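Before the break, one more example. Copy the sequence into your notebook; we will annotate it together after we see the structure.
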Amino acid sequence: MNELNMEKEKLEIIKWVTSLRDDTAIERLKMLRVNPKKIDWWNEITDEEKTAIDKGLADIKAGRVKPHKEAKKLYEKWL
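Here is what the structure looks like once it is written out:
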């Protein structure tokens, strides 16, 4: 990535961060800033998050998925 693109990416990230309303996302960003070493995120998430991910993967394997277009239409009033 060239320097100009890197600066553009940084500005996009700043813009995104300033619009966050999710406490969990903000806490994760703070954790990254305080401890920038590469960590295995799986070991850093809650058991509830792990369970949700495992359930989602099981749904995918079982074919219990909807195309993005369908999901977007179903949830458009909240988007």
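Helices lie at 3-18, 23-34, 47-61, 68-75. Residues 1-43 form one domain. Try to locate both features in your own notes.
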